[in-house]
Design brief:
Blueprint: E1 4-8, H1 13-25, E2 51-53, H2 66-76, E3 81-84, H3 90-93, H4 115-124, E4 132-134, H5 171-187, E5 190-192, E6 198-200, E7 209-212, E8 222-226, H6 231-239
Parallel strand pairs: 2-3, 3-4
Antiparallel strand pairs: 1-8, 5-6, 7-8
Helix pairs in contact: 2-4, 5-6
């Protein structure tokens, strides 16, 4: 069974502030404002947090400041911190960079370059008893209408041209299955690939939140709060909304 609760965080507060400013400008100079500080009108439920994006400075294999970052992030003691391995670093954010080879019945699933930065982040947040919001925002480019899904071999090399192509009739299904397997690996520690091979060794995180971008909703995000997590079912629901060009955001 899968229970999904949604929280829409649309940034309409900017328009509200502008409207309020216009209202004050239109007031007369003799207007009187009375404030009763002893009356509680509303209790703020805002959570002060931040977003961490994958980049070479967080690569524990090559960066001299990665451990200091981990210590600083842990010291912040923030809840619901987002982790986004975004598109400029394909090897850090995409677990299946090449399409399945049907001749050899092999796949390119590989978490070698994903794990170092993910574990650093999770040790500083999730390992500190805090909730996290992973957002693997970049889908494999080969799932779109393009013949070029090349990527740098060095995980620290920037490639801002990695996302290419428009969605095809099969993109929704491919992306849904991809996220299902990715989530299964993160939460259950294993998944079954396109040829029935089981890949084990995942971290088995008890994730409560998963975030993806919503196409066509400007300046907003949708948080899917997972109660009983069945990753493939969840990703199929998300995959149905993927109909736009492969424009990755971080």
């Amino acid at each position: 069974m899968l229970i999904i609760h949604t929280e829409m965080a649309v940034r309409s507060y900017v328009a509200g502030f502008v409207s309020l400013a216009i209202l004050f400008i239109g007031c007369t100079a003799n207007a009187t404002v009375t404030v009763d500080w002893n009356t509680t009108e509303y209790i703020s439920r805002t959570t002060t947090t931040l977003q961490v994006v994958a980049n070479p400075l967080l690569n524990v294999k090559t960066s001299p400041v990665a451990k200091q970052f981990q210590a600083s992030l842990k010291a912040l003691n923030a809840d619901l911190v987002r982790y986004v391995p975004w598109y400029p670093y394909p090897k850090v954010g995409v677990a299946e960079l090449d399409p399945p080879n049907y001749a050899t019945k092999t796949t390119s699933w590989n978490f070698t370059d994903i794990l170092p930065q993910l574990e650093l982040f999770m040790n500083a947040t999730y390992g500190n008893g805090k909730r996290v919001v992973p957002n693997f925002s970049t889908q494999p480019t080969w799932m779109y209408n393009t013949k070029d899904w090349s990527y740098p071999t060095d995980p620290n090399t920037v490639d801002r041209a990695y996302p290419k192509g428009d969605a095809t009739a099969n993109t929704t299904k491919l992306v849904a299955q991809y996220y299902g397997r990715l989530l299964s690996w993160l939460v259950t520690g294993e998944f079954t690939d396109e040829f029935g091979v089981t890949h084990r060794g995942g971290p088995k995180y008890n994730l409560t939140h998963w975030e993806v971008g919503v196409a066509g909703v400007a300046d907003s995000c949708l948080l899917w709060r997972l109660t009983l997590l069945q990753p493939l079912e969840l990703s199929e629901n998300l995959g149905r909304s993927i109909t736009s060009p492969n424009t990755a955001t971080g």
